[in-house]
């Protein structure tokens, strides 16, 4: 394993410190327990949005803390859920009279730990669970995983909270976005978790993993590599079967890199995916291409389609000022 | 080789089309000959900034086309210089009465082709050459290479041009930034050029390449992997010997990923590099961390220090609206 680290034990702390130093105008880092929160105060009564999960998916979630998006993010160790004391400390730091909305990717560990925190904090709170990964059936043991669609939930709900929507309304908007969003990914290579020191799984030189999870979970099937057009058709068809978009329905198309796939390939994937949806009459109104929900050094990408209506598109377009997403200010 | 492509021959065209579709609000793509230019018209008399070079370094340069930065970018095939007809067509498209300033990374092919274009276009023009890579001696055969510092030149000169500075002033500012900027990189792995189908060079599992170029050129030395702290010290010391920064001198610190190195590691590198400079009394006033000048799927990163004075910092801070850099608007 070759990585830029001093030791596996100090990696997360050194990295989060560096993140907070590089973006000191936007965020601050609380070291014990770990959480990232906004530098600037929020309006009194605003719903506080808190997300989190295992590290290794950067910029998710810490890179989305700032005006118009999250109030705090709780990073666990790599691919490991944060603990309830992190969410409780973050809630205490950022709650501002409007209650707390947790945005949680649907993984057993994250769900359990966020639920424990939700029970223990003494302010009003609610939770949105994100489960946009259509590679698994809906009745899969613990349900579908939350993947790259989480960013869209966080951005749209973040704008709603900034606009003064209350806790119930923010939760409802988050659930609406989650319902309207579907993703599926493909891996070219495994990632290597530093503490493990070797690839999580092995793919042969001519194989790819369709439906891979963002921690390197095996997906639907291991198949011989295909052309980019065939890969995009297979991923998009799975999304189409789930969302069943209508003609002229407005949508956001998000191509997410897992960390080691060059932008030149992600833009090619975007081209093919946009054509797929245009042929079906879907109105691609917004686009996002890049490495946002990563899996350390995994090569691969995911396609996310989110059927945002005009109201939700307005929230997507609203100003945002975070380390990883910034526009309108 | 596993990549998301349909064929090596169509990769660049399909990718540039996708890039322009995803960012249709900012750029347009001219297919024959290839160049990317701004969607929005510029103010009459503004100096037009044109850069370019081999593809495979995305988001450089196409991702920096837009308000406050470049007017056009000419992408060659992967790691191959663009041809003079691209620069000439781009110049004709974007020249707006203020002349054309070419910003060129110092590689023999790029220099030759941009010089040919400069001789043949019939508007006033000038060129800034960028050669910030300190891994090679100054008297190296064709001089030092232009690497991640190019972004800083393009951003600062872009703001000056937007503010109405004339061609000579823009050129002078570009040269001032280039003089004040030094970079050095390290590779963990080679990249794989699609047309070649195999890694450009081989590093053993315990080796890294100090001073690597952004096309996978071998650097100063191949050494056994060290701790992140030791790697940062070695890179930063080379930069220090070149720039000899004074106490309290303001600076921009840029950590650039080569494409396959996770953000969690780049933030750790930022932390260590910032400490290195702080110990020497350098005043790190601005930061940029991420994958901006990439080498396809190479794992590795570079450190860039740019001694921007107050005037240049103001230009760095000026509004920019491109696919890859966006703030203030």
TrEMBL record, chains A, B:
EC number(s) reported in the record: 2.7.1.121
Cited Gene3D superfamilies: Dihydroxyacetone kinase, domain 1, Dihydroxyacetone kinase, domain 2
Keywords: Kinase, Transferase
Signal peptide: none
One Pfam match: Dak1
Domain DhaK: 7-327
Annotated protein name in UniProt: Dihydroxyacetone kinase subunit DhaK
The species this protein was found in: Methylotuvimicrobium buryatense
């Amino acid at each position: 394993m070759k990585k830029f680290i001093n030791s596996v034990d100090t990696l997360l702390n050194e990295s989060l410190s560096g993140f907070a130093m590089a973006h000191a105008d936007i965020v601050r880092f609380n070291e014990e327990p770990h959480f990232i929160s906004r530098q600037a105060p929020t309006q009194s009564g605003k719903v506080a949005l808190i997300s989190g999960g295992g590290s290794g998916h950067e910029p998710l979630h810490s890179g989305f803390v700032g005006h118009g998006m999250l109030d705090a993010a709780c990073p666990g160790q790599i691919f490991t859920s944060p603990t309830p004391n992190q969410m409780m400390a973050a809630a205490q730091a950022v709650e501002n009279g409007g209650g707390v909305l947790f945005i949680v990717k649907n993984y057993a560990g994250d769900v359990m730990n966020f639920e424990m925190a939700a029970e223990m904090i003494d302010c009003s709170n609610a939770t949105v669970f994100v489960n946009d990964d259509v590679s698994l059936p809906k009745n899969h043991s613990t349900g579908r995983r939350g993947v790259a669609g989480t960013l869209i939930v966080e951005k749209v709900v973040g704008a709603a909270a900034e606009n003064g929507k209350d806790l119930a309304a923010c939760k409802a908007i988050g659930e609406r976005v989650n319902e309207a969003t579907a993703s599926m990914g493909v891996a070219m290579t495994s990632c290597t978790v530093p503490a493990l020191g070797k690839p999580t799984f092995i793919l042969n030189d001519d194989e790819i993993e369709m439906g891979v999870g963002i921690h390197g979970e095996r997906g639907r099937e291991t198949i011989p590599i295909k052309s980019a057009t065939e890969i995009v058709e297979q991923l998009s068809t799975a999304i189409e079967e789930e969302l069943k978009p209508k003609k002229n329905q407005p949508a956001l198309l998000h191509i997410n890199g897992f960390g080691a796939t060059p932008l030149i390939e992600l833009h090619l994937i975007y081209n093919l995916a946009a054509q797929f949806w245009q042929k079906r009459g879907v109105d691609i109104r917004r686009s996002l291409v890049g490495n946002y929900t990563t899996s350390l050094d995994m090569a691969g990408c995911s396609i996310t389609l989110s059927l945002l209506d005009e109201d939700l598109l307005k929230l997507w377009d609203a100003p945002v000022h975070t380390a990883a997403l910034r526009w309108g200010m």
